[in-house]
Amino acid sequence: MRVIFIGTGDVGLPSLSWLLREHEVVAVVAQPDKPVGRKQELTPPPTKRLALEHGGPVLQPKRIREPAAVAELSALEPDVIVVMAYGQILPKALLDIPRLACLNLHASLLPAFRGAAPIQASILAGDRESGIAVMWMDEGLDTGDVLLMKPLRIRRRETGGTLHDRLAALAPEALAEAMALLAQGTAPRIPQEAALATYAPKLSRESGVIDWRASCQAIDRLVRAMNPWPASSTLLPDPAGGSPRKLKVFSVIQCPRTSGEPGTVLRADKRGILVAAGEGAVLLCDVQLEGKRRMPVRDFLLGYAIPPGTRLL
Q1: pTM for this structure?
Q2: Most buried of 148, 177, 182, 260 (most Cβ within 10 A)?
Q3: Looking at the domain assignment, is residue 42 inside a domain?
């Protein structure tokens, strides 16, 4: 089939790779290049790099709903448009372009966690299962009929990063099945139960701030969900009386039978930094102080002493 792939994030790379092998990808649409890093070097999105490696055309409209962008895509006469992690709402004029369907690959079992950050939301919620939904797109935010869903069990120590990679790897399987059903003319349309819908808003750097009044289980889920980005964090007081410094936390161990004033360091040694929570405590195992590299706590404590009784903010 003639396919237009619309996507920017690396979660869509396995699906784009599959399309490039199995179908005629007439264009890849990605967000414009953006400045990245301390040097703010202009960097192309992952999907653009992959498309260029295969010699395919890449389009990067600033706003995909502009009439010129819609007209350019319409002229390509696609059979199917496939969307995954693009970051802009598609207008009805674009949804009406393909001969067969405009499909979205969404990293949740809809109607759970519509929106921008379903992967992290499923870990935060303590769900046992996530998955890939292939959805017929409409003008709403992930509200279209479902074509099919592929579930994936969430592992006990799953992080946002590991679940992202596992769902990315599952997506081509779901897409292949959906494309086969489209070709046969047997693709179902299953309406979502709107009353069961939940939402996963876009993450910000503040999304990972630890509330020490929460339970040790909730803090553990937060830390895992926000690993690797934006990472959970707390403020560490400066022993010299200066401004507190941001301490990112990448892994913890729950200690439900330990108690203390929330946010208080109960112990800091080579086993970790034990911090009281609203219920129980957590042992910080892998951290990064602002301006420093990420490291195990035992290495961090060699250069930064944290006496018991210290209050994390």
Answers
A1: 0.94
A2: 182
A3: yes
